[in-house]
Amino acid sequence: MNHYQFNIIGYVASPYKQKFAIPRQPGLIPEATGQLVLEPPFADDSIVRGIEAFSHLWVVFVFHETADKGWSPMVRPPRLGGNTRKGVFATRATFRPNPIGLSVVKLEGVSRKNGRLILEISGLDLLDGTPILDIKPYLPYSDALPAASGGFADAAPHTAMTVSMSEPAALFCQQQTRYPQLRILIEKVLKQDPRPPYKKQREGEQQYGMTLYNFNIKWIVDGEHNHVTEIIQLP
Ligand code: SAM
């Protein structure tokens, strides 16, 4: 087998601190904002000259969290309820022969901090700390194919899930001036029902937790309703 070695050009800074509850594709939650942080020798201004003319970027990255877990030729897409098997190349599963991911994100701006070059992005589906292999402009004339067939994932996933929040949790969100979109981000994450398919079949109330930014969010699922009970600030 041939091998190629690639350089990591930077890392993703994301509100999603764990795999659980990250949207399954980019663009589903535009309120999720993050950064592509490029480090020397890839942090030179010249390397991104002209990039601001593009509204969206392709990010090629490593599924680093699952990279050492191997792969198999068939996977069970959550989209199909976790019971139907499809070939790995017919899915966007993270467990692949080469653990490489591809996401289109919106470019919100370019800035610089402590010698690093920062591309502000939104709509990401990337875990915090994801290593970046490459960045390319999204070209609508070639990359947008409205007549293309989406197979078993022909439209954005839809759930009937609703979301409510306890008063203390709602107040907590209001007070986070650094994250004005926190409440809407939580609501949208929960509306897409992040539970694995086998848990969705369970009866009765279930308790869950996730970390967004440095907040631990706890909620209860009852039928098709999520109720956020508590938000705790992590150290
Ligand atoms: N848009 C990309 C693609 O098609 O290659 C990713 C699709 S994959 C189905 C999206 C999921 O990958 C997310 O819901 C999250 O659970 C997972 N994920 C995101 N970043 C990851 C990382 N660095 N390592 C492992 N899994 C990751």
Automatic annotation (TrEMBL):
Q: Which domain of life is it from?
A: Bacteria
Q: Which UniProt keywords apply?
A: S-adenosyl-L-methionine
- Which chain positions lie within coiled-coil regions? none
The TsaA-like domain covers 6-147
Q: Which Pfam families does the protein's record reference? A: TrmO_C, TrmO_N
| Xref: InterPro entries | TrmO-like_N (IPR023370), TrmO_C (IPR041369), UPF0066_cons_site (IPR023368), YaeB-like (IPR040372), YaeB-like_sf (IPR036413), YaeB_N_sf (IPR036414)
Q: Does the keyword Transmembrane apply?
A: no
- Which regions span the lipid bilayer? none
Q: Which NCBIfam families match?
A: tRNA_TsaA
Concerning PANTHER family, the annotation shows:
TRNA (ADENINE(37)-N6)-METHYLTRANSFERASE
UniProt lists the family membership as follows: Belongs to the tRNA methyltransferase O family.
Q: What is this protein called?
A: tRNA (N6-threonylcarbamoyladenosine(37)-N6)-methyltransferase TrmO
Which species is this record about?
Alishewanella tabrizica
Upper taxonomic classification of the species?
A: Bacteria, Pseudomonadati, Pseudomonadota, Gammaproteobacteria, Alteromonadales
